[in-house]
C-alpha cells in the first residue's frame, strides 16, 4: 500500500502495545504494513503478538519514519527516557493529556502529532482527532492520517486546546455508550425482561441506532423525532430522559466536563 511505503522502508516504532497500540497495529498490518518494518517496544507484550514477524523489544532502526507512543500518560516520561535521540522521525502520540510541548522537550525540532483515537479502532470503526506542531508538515499530517485511517475516520483539529474536550467526548465516549447499554439492559430487566434478552435488545438498539445515525442524511434530532409518536411510548420515555434538570443533558454535560478536566490535569502534571 503506497501510504505505508516510507514506513516499510525506514521502519515504524510502536512504544506501548496494549489496548490502543495493539488495535492500531492490527489495523496497520491488515492494511499491508510490513511486519518486519515494525519495532514494538513493550516490556509486557501479549503472547498473541509472537510469530507475526514483528521486531519485538529489538534495537530501534537508525532513522525510523514514525515513532508512535501509546503508553499511559503516567508512564510516558519513563518510556521517553528509554528512547534514543531521533533526527528525522515523525513522533505521534495517542496519550491523553500529554501535551505537544512535552514531546518537543524530548525531541527538539521533531515533527510531533498528537492524536486522540478511541477503542472502536479495534474493529476499524474508530474516530481519531489530530493536531500537529509547527514542525509537522502537510506530508507529516497526511502520513499520520493514513495511519489512523487504518482504524477508522480521522478529523483534524484547529488547535491543541481542543484536544482535552475531544478526549472527554470521543476518546472516553465509548465507555459512556457501553454504560448506556448496561443501564438500558438493567432498566429492561426492571420491567420484567430476562437479563439475557434485555442485554441483547439494549446492545442491538445502540448498535443499530448508531449505524443509522452515521448512515442517515438527517441529524440525530430528526431521527429521534422519527421514533416519537405524539402521545406515544417514546414521548413518555423522552420526557424523563430529556428533562433539563434531572435528565441526560445536564448529566452528559457534567460527564464530558469531568473527563475534559482530567485530561487538562494530566497535561499540567507533566
Ligand atoms: N484505551 C482507550 O480507550 C484509549 C487510550 N488512549 C491512550 O492510549 C494510551 C495507552 O492506553 P491503553 O492502550 O488503554 O493502555 P494499556 O495499558 O492497554 O497499554 C499500555 C501498554 O504500554 C506498555 N508499557 C508500559 N510502560 C512502557 C514502557 N516504558 N515502554 C514501552 N511500553 C510500555 C504496557 O506494557 C502496556 O502494554 C494512553 O496514553 C491512553 O491515554 C487514547 C485513546 C483511547
Ligand atoms: O481513560 C483514559 O485516560 C483514556 C483516554 C481516552 C480513553 N481512555
From TrEMBL:
InterPro entries xrefs: 6-PGluconate_DH-like_C_sf, NAD(P)-bd_dom_sf, P5C_Rdtase_cat_N, P5CR_dimer, Pyrroline-COOH_reductase
Reactions it catalyzes: L-proline + NAD(+) = (S)-1-pyrroline-5-carboxylate + NADH + 2 H(+); L-proline + NADP(+) = (S)-1-pyrroline-5-carboxylate + NADPH + 2 H(+)
UniProt pathway annotation: Amino-acid biosynthesis; L-proline biosynthesis; L-proline from L-glutamate 5-semialdehyde: step 1/1
Residues in Pyrroline-5-carboxylate reductase dimerisation domain copies: 160-266
UniProt xrefs under Pfam families: F420_oxidored (PF03807), P5CR_dimer (PF14748)
Keywords of the record: Amino-acid biosynthesis, Cytoplasm, NADP, Oxidoreductase, Proline biosynthesis
Subcellular localization: Cytoplasm
Domain Pyrroline-5-carboxylate reductase catalytic N-terminal: 14-97
SUPFAM superfamilies listed in its UniProt record: 6-phosphogluconate dehydrogenase C-terminal domain-like, NAD(P)-binding Rossmann-fold domains
Residues given in the record as NADPH binding sites: 57
GO annotation, biological process: L-proline biosynthetic process
NCBIfam families, per the entry: proC
Name of this protein: Pyrroline-5-carboxylate reductase
Species annotation: Paracoccus tegillarcae
Native organism taxonomy: Bacteria, Pseudomonadati, Pseudomonadota, Alphaproteobacteria, Rhodobacterales
UniProt gene name: proC
Amino acid at each position: 500500500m503506497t501510504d505505508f511505503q516510507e514506513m516499510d522502508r525506514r521502519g515504524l516504532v510502536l512504544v506501548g502495545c496494549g489496548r490502543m497500540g495493539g488495535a492500531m497495529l492490527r489495523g496497520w498490518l491488515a492494511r499491508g504494513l510490513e511486519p518486519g518494518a515494525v519495532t514494538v517496544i513493550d516490556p509486557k507484550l501479549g503472547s498473541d503478538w509472537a510469530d507475526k514477524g514483528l521486531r519485538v523489544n529489538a534495537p530501534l532502526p537508525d532513522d525510523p519514519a514514525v515513532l508512535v507512543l501509546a503508553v499511559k500518560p503516567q508512564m510516558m516520561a519513563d518510556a521517553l527516557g528509554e528512547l534514543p535521540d531521533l533526527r528525522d522521525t515523525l513522533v505521534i502520540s495517542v496519550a491523553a493529556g500529554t501535551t505537544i510541548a512535552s514531546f518537543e522537550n524530548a525531541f527538539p525540532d521533531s515533527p510531533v502529532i498528537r492524536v486522540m483515537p478511541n477503542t472502536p479502532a479495534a474493529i476499524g470503526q474508530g474516530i481519531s482527532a489530530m493536531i500537529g506542531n509547527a514542525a509537522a508538515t502537510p506530508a507529516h499530517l497526511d502520513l499520520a492520517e493514513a495511519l489512523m485511517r487504518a482504524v477508522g475516520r480521522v478529523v483534524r483539529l484547529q488547535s491543541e486546546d481542543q484536544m482535552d474536550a475531544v478526549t472527554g467526548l470521543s476518546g472516553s465516549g465509548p465507555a459512556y455508550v457501553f454504560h448506556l447499554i448496561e443501564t438500558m439492559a438493567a432498566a429492561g430487566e426492571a420491567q420484567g425482561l430476562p437479563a439475557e434478552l434485555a442485554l441483547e435488545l439494549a446492545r442491538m438498539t445502540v448498535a443499530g441506532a448508531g449505524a443509522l445515525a452515521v448512515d442517515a442524511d438527517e441529524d440525530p434530532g430528526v431521527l429521534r423525532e422519527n421514533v416519537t409518536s405524539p402521545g406515544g411510548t417514546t414521548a413518555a420515555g423522552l420526557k424523563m430522559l430529556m428533562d433539563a434538570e434531572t435528565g441526560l443533558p445536564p448529566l452528559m454535560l457534567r460527564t464530558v466536563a469531568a473527563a475534559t478536566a482530567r485530561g487538562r490535569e494530566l497535561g499540567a502534571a507533566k
